Predict the 3D structure of the following.
Amino acid sequence: MNTTRELRVRPIVSGTVIDHIVAGQAINVLRILGITGVSDAVVSMIMNVPSNTLGHKDIVKIENRELKEKEVDKISLISPSTSINIIRDYEVVDKYNVEMPSTVEGMVKCTNPNCISNTNEPVTSKFIVQNDPFRLRCLYCEHVISEQIAQYLL
Ligand SMILES: [Zn+2]
């Protein structure tokens, strides 16, 4: 038995395989899921795997957890190519591609320090999501975020 191989591709009994993550974004996916170091979760992160469609991709496997809609929406913003595989009893019971929502609320911090969503007012940030080219436009102040989305995720 090849133990190296065993470690790399250890199948999960149940949980979620987040596949086709844009290379380099796996760490941000973990941040979105709140996995920052101290955690009981069994998590595998595989980076820079050769991929037919992406060139290289990252993969994250999490045991005993399925993702919330808001988590999937955030992942779609930083890695639109991502596919989600739900595993139960070693079987893939559901598989889907993430889809960018048309608006996001309370997920991204506006980059304009004077935006009403950044003041003490009880106003939740809201952005319109535009594709081609990808950008987020603040509904309150019209500021646009088009790159490094991960660092503005709330
Ligand atoms: Zn704003």
